[in-house]
Amino acid sequence: MEKLIITCALTGAEIAKEDFPALPCSPEEIAVAAEEAAKAGAAMVHVHARDERNRPTQRAEVFAKIIELIRARTGVIVQVSTGGAAGMTPEERLSPVTLTGPLKPEMATLTTGTVNFGEEVFSNPAPVIEVFARRIVGAGIKPEIEVFDVGFVDNALRLVQKGLLQPPLHLNLVMGVPGGITGTPRNLLHLVESLPAGSTWSVAGIGRAQLPLGVTAVVLGGHVRVGFEDNIFYSRGLKATSNAQLVARVARVAAELGREVATPDEARRILGLA
Predict the structure, then answer these.
(1) How far apart are CA 143 and CA 164, in angstroms?
(2) Considering only CA atoms, which of 61, 43, 41, 39 is closest in space to residue 51?
């Protein structure tokens, strides 16, 4: 079984700083959180950005500052979000993939379907998905396919058939979002069995689904995403103190189960980035 890649989704776009003061929002706070997560075992960080008022932004210059500061502190893989936040246009959402040179991200998310997201709709019509695939791949950035339900896998395979994506794919199974697939081990098995041969995959369990799905993924040979974007609680009623605390728990569980945690360079080889 290959080594475990732990990804840390540091911030997200849904949680408000005033409701959860531990949330890293400024570029400096995000970079510190990334360094702490790396020391705890994360090989990759999934990055959203916030503006001066701690509100979600996709401005390239903010992402550039975050990436610069993270890379000054640690060698983790930097993956940028093209999901943005509700109401953003496709061009806004794609802004981070326009970065070039030493600030170019190694990976970017590519969501292959539309999903109800609580009371909002995360809209990704087929023509928009194709634009995102062309732009991400054309920039020399590896896409991570974001899967909120099983039909998203089929949509990704259509992109392969059209020549817009090249296998092997890397997919992140986002489970437990209200409106998406429920975060149960049974549903995780169903999604994993639906993936194309040769793919790599991780699971991002939302809220209380984070730990049981993460443990299941460790056993199944997949990879795991944790972090404040997906879950701010360490246990029932007890909020986590840092992203690193959530990373460290997965690393500890993996060690107990006899599975080694990948370094950033080992993760690059597993994902075909090196």
Answers:
(1) 11
(2) 61
* 6-271: CATH topology: TIM Barrel (3.20.20)
The values of phi and psi at residue 251, to 5°, are: -60, -40
Q: How confident is the model at residue 240 (pLDDT cuts 50, 70, 90)?
A: very high
Enter the pTM of the model.
0.97
Write out pLDDT tens, residues 186-212: 999 999 999 999 999 999 999 999 999
**Cβ count within 10 A of residue 71:** 15
Report phi then psi at 228, rounded to 5. Answer: -65, -25
What is d(CA 246, CA 232) in angstroms, rounded to the nearest whole number?
9
Whether 204 contacts 192, CB under 8 Å = no
Cα(156)–Cα(28) distance, integer angstroms: 35
Q: Which amino acid is at 237?
A: G
The Cα 13–Cα 200 span in angstroms is 26
- Reduced to 3 states, what is the DSSP secondary structure of residue 53? coil
Query: Is residue 108 within 8 Å of 136, Cβ to Cβ?
Result: yes
